[in-house]
Design goal:
The chain is an alpha/beta fold. It contains three helices and eight strands, in the order αβββαβαββββ. A five-stranded mixed β-sheet has the order 2-8-7-4-5, with no helix packed on it. One of its GO terms (molecular function) is electron transfer activity.
């Protein structure tokens, strides 16, 4: 009887782990001004979500740097425009810009950065965009973020 109870407990634990939401993702960036992902789905069951940004290119951040910025879709262009004058040390983001939900620093070849954010800041009925705020990169480096069940 004890062995059966242990087996049931192990199976329940294993199936629970298989059903657990993945609350992180890795997004690669390259010298070709591209992200390896064009869409990110975030489970509503995640309390926080982490984005791990990598740069697999060979150019330094001053030449071909990238970051990962999350905002409402309608705010992205304004954030990128306002951030142009902020400079690389501020990740091309205006200090205190409340339209920015989450962001990583600008990275170059071989570098990595991560950001975690509170999923409760997102709404299922809102359109979100992730993008690179390095000047001129928004046109090619962007993707959708959606909440899923």
């Amino acid at each position: 009887m004890f062995a059966k109870a242990v087996a049931v407990s192990v199976l329940a634990l294993a199936s629970g782990q298989l059903l657990a939401a993945e609350c992180s993702t890795t997004v690669d960036s390259t010298d070709q001004m591209t992200f390896g992902s064009k869409a990110i789905e975030i489970s509503k069951s995640c309390k926080t979500f982490t984005v791990n940004l990598t740069h697999s290119g060979s150019l330094p951040k001053e030449v071909m740097g990238h970051n990962w910025v999350l905002s409402k879709e309608d705010d992205a262009r304004g954030i990128a425009m306002d951030g142009m004058s902020a400079g690389i040390d501020n990740s091309y983001l205006k200090k205190g810009d409340e339209r920015v939900i989450a962001y990583t620093k600008v990275i170059g070849a071989g570098e990595k950065d991560s950001v975690s954010f509170d999923v409760s800041k997102l709404s299922a009925d809102q359109k979100y965009l992730f993008f690179c705020s390095f000047p001129g990169h928004l046109a090619m480096m962007k993707g959708a973020v959606t909440l899923v069940d």
